[in-house]
């Protein structure tokens, strides 16, 4: 079976520590993604996100490297998300943090995949705005 992935990159004029904090706290993700959430920066914790779609999106934290990496595995959500992984890597140089976001292991390229691809780009746009305007 051919899996498909979503990949994006963005450059934020903010320290990696600021970006990591935004990706691993209720405060950060509440400003960037949805304010109906339960989040902990803890391996094995199942984060919950409510996008007012009639179900919760539940993402298990499978890897955390402070200021470098966040990896979630979807355990509950839209059926196309279940079993997929969201991988976010950070690298900082000269005051700019490169953010690589990959949503891995989609089973097929569907209209929902395309819509989610668009929404991940918006997520990175909001992340950039939030992190660059925190001073």
Q: Could you characterize the architecture of this molecule?
A:
It is a single chain. Strand 6 and strand 7 form a beta hairpin. The termini are far apart. Helices cover 28% and strands 40% of the residues. With 135 residues, the chain is α+β, with helices and mostly antiparallel strands. It is globular, with a radius of gyration of 14 Å. It has a single domain, classed as Alpha-D-Glucose-1,6-Bisphosphate, Chain A, domain 4, CATH 3.30.530.20. InterPro entries: ASHA1/2-like_C, START-like_dom_sf. Residues 13-131 form the Activator of Hsp90 ATPase homologue 1/2-like C-terminal domain. Belongs to the AHA1 family.
Task: Compile the SSE list and pairings.
Blueprint: E1 4-12, H1 16-24, H2 26-32, E2 37-38, E3 46-50, E4 56-65, E5 69-76, E6 85-93, E7 96-106, H3 111-132
Keyword list:
7 strands; START-like_dom_sf; Alpha-D-Glucose-1,6-Bisphosphate, Chain A, domain 4; 7-stranded antiparallel β-sheet; alpha+beta; globular; ASHA1/2-like_C; 28% helix
The count of domains is 1
Mean pLDDT: 96
The span between the termini is 47 Å
This entry's quaternary arrangement is single chain
| Structure summary, number of beta strands | 7
What is the SS-derived class? alpha+beta
Task: Assign the CATH superfamily.
Answer: START domain
Which CATH top level class fits? Alpha Beta
Largest sheet: 7 strands, antiparallel
Order of helices and strands: EHHEEEEEEH
CATH architecture: 2-Layer Sandwich
CATH topology: Alpha-D-Glucose-1,6-Bisphosphate, Chain A, domain 4
Strand content: 35-45%
Shape: globular
Strand order of the largest sheet: 1-7-6-5-4-3-2
Helix fraction?
25-40%
* Cα radius of gyration in angstroms: 14 Å
The parts where pLDDT drops under 50 for at least 5 residues are none
Number of helices: 3
Family: Belongs to the AHA1 family.
Pfam family, one: AHSA1
């Amino acid at each position: 079976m051919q899996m498909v992935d979503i990949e994006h990159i963005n450059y934020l004029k903010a320290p990696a520590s600021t970006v990591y904090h935004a990706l691993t706290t209720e405060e950060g993700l509440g400003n960037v993604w949805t304010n109906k959430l339960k989040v902990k920066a803890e391996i094995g914790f199942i984060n919950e996100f409510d996008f007012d779609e009639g179900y919760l999106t539940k993402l298990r934290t499978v890897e955390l490297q402070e200021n470098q990496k966040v990896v979630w595995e979807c355990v509950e959500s839209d059926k196309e998300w279940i079993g997929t992984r969201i991988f976010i890597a950070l690298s900082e140089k000269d005051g700019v943090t490169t953010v690589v976001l990959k949503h891995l292991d989609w089973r097929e390229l569907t209209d929902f995949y395309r819509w989610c691809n668009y929404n991940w780009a918006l997520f990175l746009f909001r992340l950039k705005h939030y992190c660059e305007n925190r001073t």
